[in-house]
Structures are given as structure tokens and as C-alpha cells.
Specification:
The complex is a heterodimer of chains A (about 280) and B (about 280).
Chain A lengths: L3 H31 L3 E3 L2 E3 L5 H8 L1 H34 L5 H9 L6 H12 L4 H8 L14 H11 L1 H14 L2 H9 L4 H29 L3 H6 L7 H9 L5 H30 L4
Antiparallel strand pairs in A: 1-2
Chain B lengths: L9 H26 L16 H8 L1 H34 L5 H9 L6 H15 L5 H25 L3 H9 L4 H30 L2 H6 L6 H8 L6 H32 L12
Helix pairs in contact in B: 1-11, 2-11, 3-6, 3-8, 6-8, 7-8, 8-11
Classes of the chains: A mainly alpha (about 280), B mainly alpha (about 280).
Chain lengths: ~280, ~280
């Protein structure tokens, strides 16, 4: 029997829960069902089959794209988190009064149209782009560099830029929670700065690092705008293929199978990262 | 400050922080630069100052439609997700009920799901239901991804409420609804406004879901996407982007101001990260 409080709580959350069930759970179940169906241009065949998964896992083009996406996303995650850590550390340990202002400034670029940010990286990295013009103007290079744009490097750089605030905030929060007296105690007991960092600061910041890693990793696998605008043919990722299957190729069941396959792989990698973080950091929430 | 807190060289970190900010702002500062540059090509060197690209925006009929659509979608998404967010945040802050953690994690799930998954899943469902794509379907998707942000913002507002105020109101004969309207709502109002502004901004800038779920009437980001293919349109797209950037920053500053007011009203410390993490 539900008590009054339990009933009221459930009643109050029910509109939101109902919305999530209808608009998230139902679509996810539908997409799962769909992935076991087949489509021949406009004809949808609702016989259950593993054909889409077979195709997604055996055709070289799809596996190449999935593994390239994973590789790019993992590199993006590593670069983003490694770049984010020092800035989060600086904000938490060295900035005294203007923390909120710094955090605000870090989030502002995130609120510019994502499309335009990606497009502007194209302007910066292009053949006649800002970077090449500047380097030529300074006399550092003679001919414009061509390895900047339309490859996986450009995708990594652009995504690392796009997800920076999401990497910084969780690490910052974890660092803020560290009890400063622990560091003083370590110093009193004779630990030097490096030892203090690796034995106290980093392990205690682990929950934030793990959160950042997952927050960057999971969505980047699903991005198709950055690869399409700056990736060239070598920078295309699985989400581009998913988009094509739902659009031009008109094969939504295969698209669903590709989307779910890549999600499954990312979810397994995320679980491993989470467990490793728990093991080394001890206190992952 | 004790020396223990200065365990990494302060000067180098400060240099790094500044370099990082340059990296973060590099594309953003180019936006107004090219919007005000008197050339059809988006490249250096700059050729001269002009405001004509902003003028072009006034004469582009298709853009005005997209602006109207985005405003309609943004306002509806903001209101709906804030209402849903308020229900969940209030329930989580005030009541204990079975499966609370599971339900809350499920509702917050869109925060970590790739948007393309959310978008194609909704698309598949709508296709099966035979529901035509329109601005309504875009709103359905936006509400789903905006609600977790709203909950994050409103949670601190509801957690800061003193329960004795509520009890006092009951003792004085107010009904449950009366108490909500006359006691609770005024106290959380700044948080609600902050949530409305943030969710509106998210909806205004959101592309992937709108791209999959929009019908013939496009939103601003979908319109921008269609323009990126035409080199001749780029300068005016830069002008449009500049206006959107200014608008987003303005809304963010307002949201932050309301959030702090909400925290001050309840005598709690406003967390520096805006409750988003």
C-alpha cells in the first residue's frame, strides 16, 4: 500500500515520466523492433530477421565507419579531457574570486550555433584559411598547409572544441569537492607537489574525469555535422551513414541496426571506462 | 593561501588558461569579423567595413519564416519542458517514492544519449504512427532534450525551499494549490525564469533533432544548414550568426541573473556551475 507521500511523489512526477515513456522509451523500443525488419525501397517487410545486423557487421564499409568513429571519438575524448584538466585545475585551485565569471566565459562559445562554429573551423583551417594566411604572412610557411582540413585531424580538433565546456565542468566540480586540508596534511607528512598531485588530487578528481570522459565520448560518436563539414571522405563517421540510410538511401531498418550497433559498442566501452574509473579512483558516483 | 594549494606552477597554468580561451574563442570572434567585412568571400585579408549583410537579412523572406518558426518552437519547448521539469524537480526534492532513482535517471537519459539516436528513434515512431513531420514534431523532440536541463536548474531551487513555510501555509488554512501558487511558486520563480531562458536558448540553437523531425517549415539552424552550401549567402549567414550569438549571450546573462536571485531569495549559495553538473 502506498503511503500518502509516496503517492503524491509519484503523482507529481507522472507527467514527466509519462512524457519520457511516450517520447523516449516507446521510440527506442520502436527503433529496436525496426532494426529486425527489412525495407526494400518503399516496401516494409515486418518479418523478424537479423539481416540488417548481418549486413551492418559484415559489410566492410559499415565496420570501417564504425571503427573509424570509435577511433576518432576516443582520440577526441582523450584530447578534450587532457586539455580540460589543467584549466579545471587552474579554476579550482588558483582562481580565487572570479570563478563564476571564468565558468561563464568558458560556456559562452558553446551557446553559439553549433553549425556555425563547425563552419568557422573550416574557415580557420582551409587552404586560404585564417591559419594558412597568418602563417604565410609571418613568413613561417611558403605554401598553404593542406593537411589541416578535410581529414580526421580536423574532425578531432573541431569536436574537441565543441565539447570543451562539458569536459571542464565535471572535473571542476570534482576538484572543488576536494578537502584542501588533505593536501596540507600530505605536505606536513613530507609529500612533494608531484606526489601530492598523483596520490591525492588526481584520485579524488577521478569521478569528474570519468564523468567528463563519458559526457564527451558518447555524444561524439553520434555526430554527423562535423565529419560532413570538415572531415572530407577520410573523416566521415558512422552517424553520417545512419543519416544517409534514413534519408537518401531510404533504408531506415538498416539505419536503425547501425545506430543500435554503434550505441551498443559505445555503451560497452563506457561501462569499461566507468569500472576502471571506479577501480582507480575508488569513489565514482 | 598555503603552499599546498599551489602545487602546480601558477604562472604556467595562467598562461595555459589564456591560450585555452584563445582556442575556445577563435571561431566565435571570427563571426562578427566576417559579418562586418565588405567581401563576398569568407577569408582574410579583410577588405573593408560594412553593415550591408545585416541589411540583406531584412530582405530575405525565407529567413523571416525560419525566425518565426524557431521562436514558436523555442517558446513552446521552453514552456512545456519547464512545466515537466518543475514537476520532476519538485517531486525529487520533496517526496520519497518507489523507484525514484531509476525514474530520475531515465528522465535525465537524453543528456547522455547521442542526439542522432533520439532523433531517429522519434522519427521511426512518428513514421509508424503515420504522423506527418511538422513544427509540432520538432517541439516534441526539443521538449525531451530540454527537460533534463530544466530539472538540473530547478532542482536547486526546489531543494532550497524551507518545508516549514509550506506547513505554516497549511496551518493558516491554505489549500494545496493555494500554497503552491502563493508560497512556493514566488520562491522558485527566478529559477523558473532561468529554466525558461536556458531551454529557449537550447531549442533556438538545436539542429540535429530539428533536421530529422522538421517538415516543410524549417527552424533557424535548419535554414542556416541549407544556406551553408551557397558561397554567396555566407556573409549574410555570418551576420545572422552574430545576431544569434548576441541573443544567446543576452539570454544566458539574464538566466544566470535570475538563478542567482533564486539562490539569494532562499539564502543558499548559488553554485558556480549553474547546477548543470
Amino acid at each position: 500500500m502506498l503511503t500518502g507521500e509516496r503517492r503524491q511523489g509519484l503523482a507529481l512526477i507522472s507527467p514527466t515520466l509519462l512524457y519520457s515513456l511516450l517520447m523516449l522509451a516507446a521510440p527506442l523500443i520502436m527503433v529496436l523492433t525496426f532494426s529486425f525488419w527489412t525495407q526494400n525501397y518503399l516496401e516494409l517487410d515486418t518479418t523478424l530477421t537479423l539481416d540488417n545486423y548481418r549486413e551492418a557487421w559484415s559489410k566492410p564499409i559499415y565496420s570501417t565507419l564504425i571503427f573509424r568513429s570509435l577511433k576518432i571519438s576516443l582520440i577526441v575524448t582523450l584530447v578534450t579531457v587532457v586539455l580540460a584538466f589543467p584549466i579545471a585545475y587552474y579554476l579550482s585551485f588558483h582562481v580565487k574570486r572570479r570563478k563564476a565569471l571564468w565558468l561563464f566565459l568558458i560556456t559562452v562559445p558553446f551557446w553559439t550555433s553549433y553549425l556555425l562554429r563547425v563552419f568557422l573551423w573550416k574557415v580557420i583551417l582551409g587552404y586560404n584559411g585564417v591559419l594558412n594566411t597568418a602563417l604565410k604572412g609571418l613568413g613561417i610557411i611558403e605554401e598553404p598547409l593542406t593537411f589541416l582540413l578535410y581529414n580526421a585531424n580536423a574532425v578531432v580538433l573541431t569536436l574537441a572544441h565543441a565539447w570543451a565546456p562539458f569536459a571542464i565542468l565535471p572535473i571542476f566540480v570534482a576538484l572543488e569537492k576536494i578537502d584542501r586540508s588533505l593536501l596540507e596534511a600530505a605536505e606536513d607528512l613530507g609529500d612533494g607537489p608531484v606526489r601530492r598531485f598523483f596520490r591525492i588530487t588526481l584520485p579524488l578528481a577521478m569521478p569528474g574525469v570519468v564523468a567528463s570522459t563519458l559526457i564527451v565520448l558518447i555524444p561524439t560518436v553520434g555526430d554527423f555535422i562535423t565529419p560532413k563539414l570538415v572531415g572530407g571522405t577520410d573523416g566521415l563517421m558512422i552517424a553520417n551513414m545512419i543519416q544517409i540510410q534514413f534519408g537518401k538511401a531510404n533504408n531506415a531498418p538498416l539505419g536503425a541496426a547501425l545506430a543500435l550497433s554503434s550505441m551498443l559498442i559505445v555503451a560497452s566501452i563506457s561501462a569499461v571506462i566507468f569500472l576502471l574509473g571506479k577501480r582507480f579512483g575508488g569513489k565514482v558516483q | 593561501m598555503t603552499s599546498a594549494l599551489k602545487s602546480l606552477p601558477s604562472k604556467w597554468l595562467a598562461v595555459y588558461a589564456v591560450a585555452y580561451m584563445v582556442f575556445l574563442y577563435a571561431p566565435v570572434v571570427l563571426l562578427p569579423v566576417f559579418a562586418l567585412n565588405d567581401a563576398k568571400v569568407i577569408a582574410f585579408p579583410l577588405t573593408g567595413f560594412t553593415a550591408k549583410w545585416f541589411g540583406v537579412l531584412w530582405q530575405t523572406e525565407a529567413l523571416h519564416g525560419a525566425v518565426r518558426n524557431s521562436l514558436a518552437v523555442g517558446l513552446s519547448s521552453a514552456v512545456l519542458s519547464t512545466v515537466l521539469g518543475a514537476c520532476a524537480a519538485r517531486a525529487a526534492a520533496r517526496y520519497r517514492f518507489p523507484l525514484k532513482r531509476g525514474i530520475m535517471s531515465f528522465i535525465m537519459l537524453p543528456l547522455v544519449l547521442p542526439e542522432i539516436i533520439v532523433a531517429v528513434a522519434l522519427l521511426v515512431l512518428l513514421m509508424q504512427l503515420g504522423m506527418p513531420l511538422s513544427l509540432v514534431t520538432v517541439v516534441l523532440g526539443h521538449v525531451l532534450i530540454c527537460t533534463p536541463f530544466s530539472i538540473a536548474i530547478l532542482s536547486s531551487a526546489f531543494q532550497g525551499l524551507d518545508q516549514s513555510l509550506e506547513e505554516a501555509s497549511f496551518d493558516l488554512g491554505e489549500t494545496r494549490w493555494g500554497t503552491f501558487r502563493r508560497v512556493i511558486l514566488p520562491l522558485v520563480m527566478p529559477g523558473v525564469v532561468s529554466s525558461l531562458l536556458i531551454t529557449f536558448t537550447i531549442s533556438l540553437d538545436e539542429f540535429i533533432i530539428a533536421f530529422f523531425l522538421t517538415g516543410t517549415e524549417v527552424t533557424l539552424p535548419v535554414y542556416i544548414w541549407s544556406q551553408l552550401r551557397f558561397p554567396g549567402k555566407l556573409p549574410s549567414v555570418m551576420a545572422l550568426g552574430t545576431i544569434l550569438l548576441a541573443l544567446s549571450v543576452l539570454l544566458l546573462i539574464l538566466a544566470e541573473w535570475f538563478r542567482r536571485r533564486s539562490a539569494r531569495k532562499q539564502g543558499i549559495e548559488a553554485s558556480a556551475t549553474g547546477g548543470l553538473v
